[in-house]
Every structure is written in C-alpha cells, then in structure tokens.
Amino acid sequence: MLALRNLLLAGGVGMTIVAVYILAYDLYRGISYRRAVATAEAVAVAVVVRWRLSLALAMLAWGPLLMAFSIVVVPSGMAGVRVSQMRGTEPGTLYPGVHLVMPLMEDVALFDTRDQIFTTGMPEDENTAAKKTSSKLQPLNVQAKEGLTLGLAITVRYRLDAKRLDYIEGNLPRPVEKEIVPPTVASVWREIVPNYTVRDVFSAKREEVRQKAAGLITQKLAADGIVVKEVMLRDIQLPAEYAEGLQALLLKEQENDQMSVETELKTKEVRIAELEAEAMKARQVKAAEGEARVRVLRAKSESDAMQYTLPLKQKQIEQSRLEAQARKEATIQNAEGDAQAKVIDSKAEGERRKLLAEAEADRIRVTAAADAERLQSEAAVLKENPLLINKIIAERLSDKLQIMMVPADGKFFFANDVLRGMSMANQSAQAEQEQK
What we know:
Blueprint: H1 2-39, H2 51-69, E1 71-74, E2 78-84, E3 88-89, E4 97-100, E5 106-112, E6 116-119, H3 126-131, E7 140-143, E8 149-160, H4 165-171, H5 176-179, H6 181-192, H7 198-204, H8 206-222, E9 226-237, H9 240-384, H10 388-396, H11 413-435
Antiparallel strand pairs: 1-4, 2-3, 2-5, 6-8, 7-8, 8-9
Helix pairs in contact: 1-2, 6-8, 9-11
C-alpha cells in the first residue's frame, strides 16, 4: 500500500507539473509571437494558449492526490486516532497497518505504544549515562519525616493504553511523557515519603514505600490512559551529615553485633567445655566399670578353667602313654615287616637265579642242538659236493693266505680229517645231552 500511495502521489504531482509546463510553454510562445510582430522581423503565426488542456490536467491530478491522501499507514509499535476538521477527535484506535481516511477532512495522530522509561538520577548503564550527559538527570528531591532532603533515583516503565488514545488526544497535553508522567511521579513520591523517617525509607521499610508509590502512580496514570508496568527505586542519596551519622551508627551497631556474637561464642565454648568434661567423666566411669567387669569375668573364667585343668592333664598323660605304646607297636610291626620283606626278597632272588640258570641251560641245549643239526646238514652237503670244503676254507682263512688247488682225482686227506672231527663232535654233544 505504501507503493500504491507513493505511485498515486507521483502521478498527481506529475500531472500538475505537465499542466504547468504546457501553460508556461504556450505563454512563452505567445510572448515570442508578440515580439516578432512588433519588430516585423518575420512572419509570425498566431499562438493559442491551451488553457483548457492545462486546467483539465490540473483537475485530473487531484484524483490521484486525493486517493493518496486517503491512505494512511500506521507503523509497527505505534497506533493512531482519526482527527476530523469538523467533529474533532473520533473514537476508535487505528492499529498498525493500512487505513482509509477522508482526504482533506481527516488527519491521523500517531502515538508510540511501546514501553517508555522515565528516569531520575544517574542511569545505571555507563553508555546510557554518556549519551544523556547533556540532559544532566537530577535525582528527585523529597523530604522525609525529620525534614531532611533525600535524593531518589527512580525509574518508571510505562506505555500508552492503545484503547484510550482518543481520550489522550482530546484531553491531555502533548507530549504526554513530558507533561503528565514526570509531575505525577514526583507528586506521588513527595506525598508518600514524608510519612516515613529517613531510616525507614533507606532500609527498614524501603520496599513498603516503593510498593505504595507504585500503586498510587499506577492508579493516577491509569486514569489518563497510561499503563504503568513497573516502578523501581534504584538508589537513595542521603544528606551528608546524616550519612556520616548513619555510618557511625551502623559501625556501632556492627560492633555491638560483633560483641554479641563473640559473647555467644564464648558462652557456647564454656558450654562445650562443660559437656566435654561430663562426657570425659562418664567415659572414665564407664571404662572403670568395664575394666572391673572384665577382671571379674577373667577371675571367673580362670576358676572355671581350673576345674577342667586336672582331668585335661590326666587325659594328656594317658594320650602320651597310648601314643608311646602305639609307636612301639608300630616299630615292632615295621621290623617284622622288614624281615619278612627280606626273606621274600631272598626267596625271590633264589627263584630268579634258578630261573636264569634253567633258561641259560635251555638256551645252551637249544644252541647245541641247532649247531648239531647245522653240522649234520653241512656234512651232508659236503658229502654231496666235496669241492665246497675248499671254498669254505678259503672264505674263513685270511685273504693274504695263498690257496692251492689240488687235482680232482687226488686223495682228500684234509677233508676226511675235517669230516671225522665233525662226526666226533656230534657224538660228544649227543653224549652230553643224554647225561643231562
């Protein structure tokens, strides 16, 4: 809508400028024509001024202008009321957005509906204080019950009630934040503080004073369409003499409180010492009683133990005797076992030797029989092949011994002797076997 409003304004102004330009141009041409006719320098053509066209454009220009003037845009954070040239302030509030009014008959008065701050004394923020150095904010001076002047640093946060802007526009002076809020706040504080002493305002009843002032300020400003959100009492400036006296009094009270605390601590220390002594006494009594009971129990346990000592000793002696007899019997049984083991070992050794002898005799008999059988087989082979005797002899003799071969038709005197010896050996072996 802002673009449309600006476009309409531009169109109306443009049409007015064109109308003025046409009229001026025609008048200029008319003046030039008159000069040419007067000097007779050239044949001039009569010029007609376009009054109707200029008037028509000027009249048409009012249409876009009136439409533009009828569009009002209320910005965010603000509100407005219609002010008629004939009826005055009209009821109702125009909230942020686009609104239509009667051009040239109605106007819109805008008000800031956001939270606003009224402050007395120095601001808390250093940046804000630097910005407002030129304004030189002063504390609000009020008198207490004693007649002493106090400087109050007050901050009031408020805003205008959007629903009552028509009342504010029609009845209150402008601007409200300078004409209504400061005197109202100052009058309320100057009405309440004189009912309290400096000490009450400074410390004892400070919150009570603030609450009363906040309630009264809210009530008075609400009647004028101003909504108070918060009233803060930031600081109190005391008179120099009173501040010094109060500081001395506070020091005395602090010393008194310190002495009271120290006295209370000493009292508690004495009480603690008494309780510790009583506790020590009770512990000693309990310890003595416990020790006596322990002694009684020990004596009783010793007397009870003596009743069982003699039978226990007798049982120990009997146990020792039985253990000695058991060791004796065990020694005898061990000796008998060792003797029997030795006898068994000797018998086992004899049996072992006998078995070894029998095994050796059997081996000899088997070996002799095997040798006899071998000799008999060799003798039979030699009888069949007499020439093998020479081969066997050559194999058994050393390789360095020269062997001489005899004719086949000679007498084998050597072979006959060998065979005769073998037969005799066989006969002796058989005789031994028979003897066994």
